[in-house]
Write the structure tokens for this entry.
Amino acid sequence: MTHMSPTTWIEIGALADVPRRGARCITTPLGKVAVFRTATDDVYAIDDKCPHKGGPLSQGIVHGAQVTCPLHNWVFSLQSGEAQGADDGAVRTYPMRAENGRLFIDASILAATTAA
Ligand code: FES
């Protein structure tokens, strides 16, 4: 059965695949993207690569809607991707949502051949 939809969401797995206050990585044409789940089951997708020295943010500590980089403890907002406090930098964020226990990400990320 095919399902045509005017939206551009693509299913990438189950919410249960991502641990609470943890993350899972997906590989996209734009690079590795970390999919985070907060303690309250909000989900966010951001680049997995810390803008400081490339630390894997998916292995960071999630607190509230923020993640702390595992390498040098910069803190990023999962909502805006911006570094918090005195640190300067930002990661890209990607639209995503959870619905009925399934995770969806903006399909244009997975289809992208060039970054804008
Ligand atoms: S690499 Fe993330 S804080 Fe240094």
